Amino acid sequence: MAAISRQQLIAKMHKVLKAEFKPVVPDVSRPILEQVLFACCLENASYDIAEKVFARLGEGYFDLNEVRVTTVAEIAETLHELPDPSRSSLVLRRVLQAVFESSYSFSLENTRKHTLVRAIKTLENLHGITPFVISFVLSTGLDSHCIPIDRGAASALLVTGIITQQDYDSGKITGLDRAIPKKLGIEFSSLLHQIGAEVVKNIHSPNVRRILLAINADAKDRFPKRGDELPAPNPPPPLPGKQGRRAAEAALAAAEEHRPAGPQAAARPPGKTPLPPPGSGPKRTPDGKPIGKASTGKGPKPFVVKPNIGKPITIKPQISYERDPDPVKPEKSTSKKDKSKKESKAAKSSLPSVSKGEKKKKIESKRHSLQLSKRKPR
């Protein structure tokens, strides 16, 4: 029997999955940041659970800033229905922190205004974001042709023989977007994600086994043993340079588990927090008992906040003043016009007195001068 090509397996997988599942059309009206957060909840989970958990996340918190400052353990309690709530909560909180540190706001709508290459760089620079989230946002929010692949979808592709073990370990599965036309990209992505969610839930279920064997009969040799899971991807050592450093950081972020809040928190991995110098702190015996002043109680006194006890308020008696029988009335304020009138009267009174005969002489001289001025020249 001739070996089936990869293109034929992908076409057959599309046909079988379309007969088993109903395609889900994603909500493309959401803002870009909401698409990112929904993808964090959707990774390795079914669409119904992701929608339910995402709605509860919006109802249980006042805004996105409250989600950003909440501990990963508390967010995991809200996302407890997901297959791996701890990892999903860690990715979601890291993405929110990265968005806030980049623009001091919770928005990624500027990715719509730029080119697709720049939008991909903007999403890749968000600390903690996964390749599945980037591909999902590109296909639903930015109208790009991408096939989002999470761990469940990669496991289904590996068992059916569409991808090799090397592709599974590296996490880079290329060629699917070329094998599936763009008009069928969203439909195939939703069908592949649904079978991937069933694989994550239980790869040994009869329904999953029947569907994968219908795609490729040789898949029975690739199934893990009963009771075992598919081994986790074993990524190759990182390459030297900037890309290798980024790949190592992404692998470390994916492998790190969340730490619960409180004194029961697990120890941080080496290199995260500097350890105190040896010999610092109070001296103790190997059993943990204090030595020296700490054991005798003669150490420094603890700081005690004293209550705020105020002094009693004494009210002094009011002094009674006797009323003056004849108070002096203040002078009335005069305006500027009254002052000018008074000054003119005082000036007139200071001038020397003039008799009536002198006044008549002055009037007659003024009249004579006026008559002379009116005469015409000869």
Brief description of this entry?
It is built from 17 helices and no strands. The protein is mostly helical and 378 residues long. It is elongated, with a radius of gyration of 45 Å.
Helical proportion, percent range? 40-55%
Strand content: under 5%
> Any idea of the CATH class of one domain?
Mainly Alpha
Q: How is the main sheet built?
A: none
**Terminal-residue CA separation:** 150 Å
**Sequence of secondary-structure elements:** HHHHHHHHHHHHHHHHH
Classification by helices and strands:
mainly alpha
Low-confidence stretches: 256-268
| CATH homologous superfamily label of one domain | Hypothetical protein, domain 2
Task: Sum up the overall morphology in one term.
Answer: elongated
Number of helices: 17
Output the CATH topology of one domain.
Endonuclease III, domain 1
Q: What's the quaternary structure here?
A: single chain
- How does CATH name the architecture of one domain? Orthogonal Bundle
Number of strands: 0
Rg of Cα set = 45 Å
Overall mean pLDDT stands at: 78
